[in-house]
Amino acid sequence: MTEYVHDIPGLAEAIASVPADGRDPRHKALLKVLRAVPGLEAVEFATSRANCYLAQRRVFTAAGELVHEDLAAWLSQEFVNDGARASVTHQRLLAADLRLSTTEITSLYLVVDRGGDESNFLQIEVELSSERLENRLMQDYGSPPRDARELLSEAQGQELPPEEQTPLGTPRYRLRRVVDMARFLELIDADEELQRARVRALRFMVSDSQSEGPPRDIGYKEIDPGLDKYPAKGRRLFKDWAASSAGQSGQRLCRHRVMQISDSKDKTTNRRWVSLVPMWTFDKKLAEVESRKGSVHALYDKLCTIDRRTGAPFAWFFYLLHGNRVHDGAGHRVLEAAEAGQIDLPENDYQVLRRWRDREYGF
Question: The organism sits in which domain of life (predicted)?
C-alpha cells in the first residue's frame, strides 16, 4: 500500500453499503456511516467535483439487457468474428439497435481534522457513480468505417432524446482512498529536495561580454541565490496559511481547501513525481476581481469581500495562489499600497505577501 494511504479495515465495505442519494449535496447518510467508524467521528463533508466519466462503457440492448461489460474489448472481438471487416460489423450492429451506457463519476472529498499542524488531517475521497443508458451504439455516418480503430471511434453513437435516457440501477458510493495529508507532504518535501540536489549539481561556463578573460565555471546557486530559501510550494501553502490571519484566527486550511494529489512514476527513468493542487471548498460563486482598474482602496475592499464571504481573513491571498478569482497583480498592488502606508495590512499578512513577492509561487 502507498505510504500515505491510511488503511481502515472495513471502511470500503461500509461505504459501499450506503444507499447513495445524488440529490443530497451534503451526503448525510454517508456521513452518518463514516462517523460511526473509530477515528472518523469528526469527519465533515468538504466539497465535490463532478463531470468526470468512466472510460470503460457497457453495451446494452434497447430493452436494457446487458450485452457486455466493456465496449472496447467486446467490439474488438465482434470485429474479429466478422473476418476483420469493419463495414460488416458496423452494419450488423447498426441494425441491432444497441445502446451504450455512460457512467458519471462525482468525486466527494471529506476531511477529518486531527488538530495541531495544518497538514494534520485525513482526506477521504469517495466516488459517487451514476450510470445511464444515454447513446445508441452505432450511427450511419454515410461512409462505413475502414478498420477496427474507425469502428471503435464511431461506436460512440448518437445521444438519445432525454425522454429515452434511463438510469441503470441506483447511484453507488465507492471508497477511492484515505489520504494522510501530513505523510503526503513529507513526500513533497523529499521530492523537492531531490530536485534541488540535481539543480545544485549543475555547472555553467559563463563569459563576461565586457571582459576578455576566460569563461568562469559557476554553480546554479550563483545564478539563483534564493534556491533554498523557501520550502516546496505544497509545503509553503500550509505554512503560509498557518502564519497568516487565516490560520491565526483559528480557521483550518482543510475546511477551506482539499488537495488534488498526484503520484506518478516515469517508466523510463523510474523517477517518482508527487505534487498537489489545492481546490477550494466554498460552494457559492465568487466574482473575478479586476486587479488593474480603480483605486487600490476599491481593490482591497473587493478582496476583503472574499474574506467575508468565505469566512476567513486574508482568504483572498489563497485564491490568488490558485483559482483565477484573484490575479497576481492584486497581490503586488496591495503590497505596494501597504508599504506606502495607503492601506492597513496586518503585519503577519504583510510578511506572507512579502515572501510571496520575494519568490512567487502558485498552482
Answer: Bacteria
Rounded to two decimals, the pTM is 0.88
What is the DSSP pairing of strand 44-53 with strand 59-60? unpaired
Q: What's the Rg (C-alpha) of the chain?
A: 27
Angle between helices 233-243 and 347-358 (to 10 degrees): 160
Beta bridge partners of 265: 272
Q: Please tell me the number of Cα atoms within 13 Å of 39 on its side-chain side.
A: 11
Confidence label for 211 from pLDDT (cuts 50, 70 and 90) = low
DSSP-based three-state secondary structure for 96: helix
Torsion sign over Cα 76, 80, 84, 86? negative
Instruction: State the DSSP code for 306.
Output: H
Cα→Cα distances 15→112, 122, 229, Å: 16, 16, 44
Burial 188-204 (b: 16+ CB within 10 A, else e): beebbeeeeeeeeeeee
CA distance 234 to 232: 5
Q: Could you give the CA distance from residue 358 to residue 30 in angstroms, rounded to a whole number?
A: 44
Question: Taking Cα atoms as reference points, which of 16, 361, 5 lies closest to residue 183?
Answer: 5
Question: Between the CA of residue 345 and those of 51, 238, 313, 340, what are the distances in Å?
Answer: 39, 20, 11, 11
Q: Where along the chain do its domains lie? A: 11-180, 232-358
- Condensed to tens digits (0 to 9), the pLDDT of residues 28-70 reads 999 999 999 999 999 999 999 987 888 889 999 999 999 999 9
What are phi and psi for residue 49, nearest 5 degrees? -135, 120
Q: Where are the alpha helices (DSSP H) in the chain?
A: 11-16, 28-35, 71-81, 86-96, 148-154, 181-200, 220-223, 233-243, 245-248, 253-256, 296-310, 315-321, 328-339, 347-358
Across the range 218-243, mean pLDDT stands at: 92
Rounded Cα gap, residues 60 and 80, in angstroms: 20
